[in-house]
Amino acid sequence: MTTLGDLAHARAGDKGDTSILVVAPYAQHDFARVDEMLRVDRVAAHFGVDAAHVTIHAVPRLGAFTVVVRGRLDGGVTRSRAADPHGKTLSGHLLDLVVEG
């Protein structure tokens, strides 16, 4: 089983109730493969949110992707009672996405 984390690394940031993740393949030749795997419906299901709350942008000149997940931080840093109100662990969670069986 191959996961996204076998092909890429990720960083997380937040703005209010929105998690902003950057996914960058380790090798440029994996950019197209990661692009095929980062689909809105798959990412939404992985995070347990409606697909309308997920936006994915490829940034080929940087060799990376921006994944925006809205409504996932339980109200945001100042409102959330979650152990990780900034959503920093969400980048690790995204890297667990299975890309092939």
Report on this model:
There is one protein chain. With 101 residues, the chain is α+β, with helices and mostly antiparallel strands. The chain has one domain. The chain is built from four helices and six strands; from the N terminus they run βαββααββαβ. The strands form two sheets. A four-stranded antiparallel sheet has the order 2-3-5-4. The chain is globular, with a radius of gyration of 13 Å. About 5% of the residues have low confidence.
What attributes does this structure have?
four-stranded antiparallel beta sheet, 101 residues, alpha+beta
What would you say about this model in short?
With 101 residues, the chain is of the alpha+beta class. The protein contains four helices and six strands, in the order E-H-E-E-H-H-E-E-H-E. The chain has one domain (2-100).
| Strand segment tally | 6
What is the arithmetic mean of pLDDT? 82
Unreliably modeled segments: 83-87
Radius of gyration over all CA atoms, rounded:
13 Å
Largest sheet: 4 strands, antiparallel
Q: Give the number of helices.
A: 4
Through-space gap between termini: 5 Å
What would you call the shape?
A: globular
- Major beta sheet, strand line-up: 2-3-5-4
Helix content: 10-25%
Helix/strand/pairing class, anyone?
alpha+beta
The run of helices and strands is EHEEHHEEHE
Strand content: 25-35%
Number of domains: 1
Organism: Microbacterium testaceum
Domain AtuA-like ferredoxin-fold: 3-99
InterPro entries: AtuA-like_ferredoxin_dom
Protein name: AtuA-like ferredoxin-fold domain-containing protein
